[in-house]
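Narrative of activities, Objective 1.

The group set out to show that a structural description can be obtained from nothing but a protein's sequence at a throughput compatible with the screening campaign. Below is one input-output pair from the validation batch, recorded exactly as produced.
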Amino acid sequence: ARHPHHSDALRLTTTRKKPMPHATDTAPRTGEHVDGYEVPVLDEHAVRIAAGILLAIGITALTITLASDSIRPLQMFGMFFLLDMTTRVLISDRLSLTLALGRALTRRRRRHWVGAPQKVFAWWLALGLAAISCVTMSAGMVPLPVTLGLCGVCFTVLLLEATLGWCAGCALHQRFSRQPTRHCANGACDR
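Output recorded for this entry:
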């Protein structure tokens, strides 16, 4: 026998469910669907904290590398960075260690939503830079100063993201992408 209120409870559950964009019930690989945003979004605070974490680990690895005259710490950081970016763009941003830490550290803050597509574009650029750096470091294909220059570019971009909220990849996405860039940090794509 059915409970008399069973059908009402079921109806309430289905009417409260919010429709997902593009008629899909699955979560996007990167970001999340939030009412009022036509693209998946990410919390800018968590993204910036994740950039700061990567920057701190990278600067530590660079310092140890320069002090010890061994490239090994920088190689280990490069592999960690490569793994973190690969996880973000190919598997899910929810499984990225640095983004998980960023989310945990900002869980009590009000979220500041930014578009996920431009962040994914930026992370693909970072993945490419990390892959080039890792290959050149491992194979000894270029002198150490060239590899350090690549690391310097990466650290500068991380610093700009973590401290100022300026995303180089997002700016490039806005300039070169066929899709419009929406919901940038600090309204940057509205200018």
